[in-house]
Amino acid sequence: MSIFEQFSTDPAANTKAPPLGAPNGGTSIKSLDDICRTLMAAIREVGDLASNVQNATESVRGIVELATIAEVQAGTDTVRAVTPAGLAARTATLTRAGVVELATSEETLAGADTARAVTPAGLAGAIEDIVLGQVPAATTSVSGVVELATSAEAQTGTDTARAVTPAALAAVTATATRAGLVELATNAEAIAGSDTTRAVTPAGLAAAMPSSPADASTTTRGIVELATNAEVATGTDTVRAVTPAGLASLEATAALAGLVELATAAEVATGTDATRAVTPKGIADNISIGNPGYINLPGTLVIRYGFTTTSTGGARTITFGTAFANAVNCLLLTPSAASSNYACRVSAISTSAFTAQLFDAADGPAPSGVTFYWLAIGG
Question: Is residue 212 predicted with pLDDT exceeding 80?
Answer without folding.
Answer: no
